[in-house]
Amino acid sequence: MIYLDHSATTAVDPRVLEAMAPFWTEAYGNPSSIYGLGRRAAAAVEAARAQVAGVLNCRPAEIVFTGCGTESDNLALRGVGLAQAARGRRHLITTPIEHHAVLHTAADLAEHFDFEVTTLAVDRAGLVDPAAVAAAIRPDTALISVMYANNEVGTVEPLAEIGAIARQHGIPFHTDAVQAGGYLSLDVEALNVDLLALSAHKFHGPKGVGLLYVRQGTRLWPTQTGGGQERGRRAGTENVPHIVGLARALELAQADRTDENARLSALRERLAEGLCARIPDIALSGHPTHRLPGHLSLVIQGAEAEGLLIGLDLAGVAASSGSACASGSPTPSHVLTAMGFSPQEALGALRLTLGRANTETEVDYVVEKLPEIVARVRGMTR
Ligand code: PLP
Predict the structure, then answer these.
(1) 36 CB contacts (<8 Å, ≥6 apart)?
(2) Among the atoms of ligand 1, which is closest to the Cα of residue 199?
């Protein structure tokens, strides 16, 4: 199998598994327990927190471990949104290309808590204009949420500029960095962000663990209350092995990223050039340069993506038609339509996301196979 769906999830790195191993059956204590076994678990969680804080250039106390990227986004929007609502601020600014973890949470705040949501326009490449963020700010703006890198088209947003504007106005700035975690700088000072969400399974860590960076001084209402873990911001016994795995995976991915990004960009170019030369009526989507290194997104006219995915699967290639969470639904992608693609064009969207194990030989195989599959699917569609 050739795995070209690294934006959906990634394999756990064996070095990550190794780091997690002691915390299942040997050092299995509850970090809240006072005896040695508990203290060992607590020390592992705090070591992981410090490791992550080193990557994010923040204080360990600013890291909240969560159950996934979705939970981190929910905690950011609901936690900050509701704290701000208590001070009369109920206006959110976000973009139409966010993951549903953000979009549906914003919609929920609007429906049940009287929030107003300004959804900014994006351009044909999926970029948000910082000037549009500035223009949308109101005296009652509670939070600005703009993703770091888009999961469907790979576009990387100008966070530092948007964050500077948010800071000038004293408005908390959240970013969903789930797709960026393994590839881009996560320095929260350079990025000017106040809240940043990550998910371990996107960078060769385990599924079911994430984190939210919360800048000191940011008002946040906990959305989960109980035993007071994570300094009262996310109650529940800590998932020790997963937290250890997240920290190790983040450290490994970030340590390798300069060389690995160069390798992935070269593979993506080879794939893009090969496919564009062999398939008529094909277009690249997303920004040509401000993009994730291994992320190739295509719009193939007259060929429905579902058929392409089945054809690729039969040829031994795992790919996606947009975000994994949205696949299986026949509606065109909200990301592509927001970028100005017609619903018909959006139905021909194909996402090929390269990662650690991919090679030139695999890319060449896909360049050889996909044109035949496209021709077959087009023949069936027309
Ligand atoms: N945000 C983005 C941009 C994503 O791509 C995803 C997952 O695909 C999520 C959030 C959700 O993360 P998780 O799967 O950890 O809930």
Answers:
(1) 29
(2) 15
Residue 323 pLDDT > 50? no
User: Is 14-252 a domain of CATH 3.40.640.10?
Assistant: yes
Residue list, ligand 1 pocket, CB within 6 Å: 68-70, 73, 99, 101, 147, 151, 176, 178-179, 199, 210, 323-325
Residue type for position 225:
T
pTM to 2 decimal places: 0.97
2-6+257-381 CATH pick, 3.30.2130.10, 3.90.1150.10, 1.10.3720.10, 3.30.300.130 = 3.90.1150.10
Query: Is 70's pLDDT higher than 70?
Result: yes
Query: Which of 114, 113, 112, 198 is CA-nearest to residue 149?
Result: 198
Identity of the residue numbered 292: L
Helix (H) or strand (E) holding 65: strand 63-66
Please give the Cα distance from 205 to 253 (Å, whole number): 10
Indicate the pLDDT class of residue 90, thresholds 50, 70 and 90.
Answer: very high
Average the pLDDT over 62-87 and give the result: 98
CB 98 within 8 A of CB 149: no
